[in-house]
Amino acid sequence: MADFLISLPALEKNARLLHETGVRSGAKVLLALKAFSTTSAFGTIRPWCDGCCASGLYEARLAARHMGGHIAVFSPAYREEELQELLHIAHHIDFNSLPQWRRYREQCLAHPRYLSGELQFGLRVNPCHSTGHTALYDPCVPGSRLGIPPEQLADADLRGISGLHFHTLCEQGAEELIETFRAFEQHFGKLLATPEMRYINLGGGHWITKPYYNRGALVSLLQEIRSTYNVEVFLEPGEAWAIHTGVLRATVLDVFESLGYKHAILDVSASAHMPDVLEMPYRPDVFALHPGGADTPAVALPGEEYRKAGEAGELTHTYRLGAPTCLAGDVIGDFSFPSPLSPGDTIILDDMAHYTIVKTTHFNGVPHPSISLLHADGTRSTVCHLDYSDFEHRLG
Ligand SMILES: Cc1ncc(COP(=O)(O)O)c(C=O)c1O
Question: Which domains, from first to last, does the chain contain?
Answer without folding.
Answer: 8-242 (3.20.20.10), 246-352+360-394 (2.40.37.10)
